Amino acid sequence: MLPTDRKRPPRHRSRPQDPRRLRRGRAPVEAALAACTLLALVGCGGEEFTSSDSAASAGGAGSGGTTAAGAGAAGGDGDAGAGAGASGASGPCAGANDVCVPPAPSGWSGPAAFYSGGSEAPPACPADWPNAEEDAFSGVGPAAIECSACSCQQPAGGACSPPTITTYQGGSCSVALNTLTLKDSGACTPLPQASGAIELSPPDLTLGTCAAVGGSATTDEPLWERRVRLCGGGGPTAPCGGGGVCAAPPPAPWSQLCIWREGDQACPAGYDAEEPLFQGFTDTRGCSACACAAPTGATCAGSVTATNGPAGASCTAFGPTLSEGVCNQNAATTWGAVKWQITASEPGSCAANGGQPQGGVELLAPLTVCCLPTR
């Protein structure tokens, strides 16, 4: 008996690979490698200004061995070069003069072109940085102030009042009868009891007071030793390597690119601090108040004449003029009335004081400005 025929398994024959398929398979891998290489090479030069003199970036090589341009020109069949060119779009800045700067840290504003000058007003913002963002100043120049002279008006409220007399019984100043204040100047004062002796006190001088005038302040606007301006609007225009942004370089006299923040702050790492700047001030300049001293040179004087007669006599026939501070005696008879008459009365004058410059200008509202160093 013949053995049964067995079926043989089918044989699989490999076909030769198409070389074109192999090249198309390798192209994405080569493109990825070229892109990684480009990213490793492109940078922004740290946090200093980095000028982009060349807008082109080297791309990866295609399978054909041709170096691709940053715009994505293809090497070989073009697939690998296109991948490398896309990565180059975030590399150098497009403008020949643009600079690559880091973005402003969180909480800070900018970047902006920075101008620093003397006491004159800052110039208008340049065309590439047209927006006036902040103005600030530092250092107070001579704060001029003038005070008008102080003077005093004539004393008011003063008086030259009648004197007081004491009458005595008999012809000596031993037994007092009455003490009374005489009537105003020119008026007759009848005595309640006839007296043979009288003591006379001086008239009462009351000093007035003087009103002060003057001491008004005239001031000029404060002058700042330094004035600065920050102008924005010049960037960022596009990203650049290392996480930076492209910006137009500041033209002279706008010397640097800076960031700013209100208050007295510490600058972030990689930035240079400007001297303290301020945006406000309080002006306490003025003149001390004018005042007047007590009057000097005031006078009050008068004369007292006595009339002989009984108590209550009229002042028709006057006798002697009495003296102050002594015992005036009437040896012959008694006095029945007296009259006081002012002979001198001057209010005097007051000396003025005050009207001196005082106060000053105090800076407020600090502004911190931090600038990128230039190469």
If you had to describe this structure to a student in words, what would you say it looks like?
The chain is mainly beta. It is built from two helices and 29 strands. The chain has helices at 19-41, 79-87; strands spanning 50-51, 99-101, 109-117, 131-140, 145-147, 151-152, 159-161, 164-168, 176-181, 188-195, 197-200, 204-206, 212-213, 217-219, 224-232, 239-240, 244-247, 256-262, 272-273, 277-283, 286-287, 291-292, 299-308, 318-322, 327-329, 335-346, 352-353, 357-358, 361-371. Strands 3, 4, 15, 18, 19, 20 and 29 form a seven-stranded antiparallel sheet that branches. A hairpin with a 3-residue loop joins strand 16 and strand 17. Helix 1 (19-41) runs parallel beside helix 2. The protein is rod-shaped.
Helix proportion of residues, in percent? under 10%
Largest sheet: 7 strands, antiparallel
Kindly name the structural category: mainly beta
Tally of helical segments: 2
Distance between the termini: 102 Å
Number of strands: 29
Poorly predicted runs of 5 or more residues: 1-90
> How big a fraction of the residues is strand?
35-45%
Radius of gyration: 53 Å
Overall pLDDT level: 77
Shape: rod-shaped
Write the layout of secondary structure elements.
Elements: H1 19-41, E1 50-51, H2 79-87, E2 99-101, E3 109-117, E4 131-140, E5 145-147, E6 151-152, E7 159-161, E8 164-168, E9 176-181, E10 188-195, E11 197-200, E12 204-206, E13 212-213, E14 217-219, E15 224-232, E16 239-240, E17 244-247, E18 256-262, E19 272-273, E20 277-283, E21 286-287, E22 291-292, E23 299-308, E24 318-322, E25 327-329, E26 335-346, E27 352-353, E28 357-358, E29 361-371
Antiparallel strand pairs: 1-2, 2-17, 3-15, 3-18, 4-15, 5-14, 6-13, 7-12, 8-9, 8-11, 10-26, 11-25, 16-17, 18-29, 19-29, 20-29, 21-28, 22-27, 23-24, 23-26
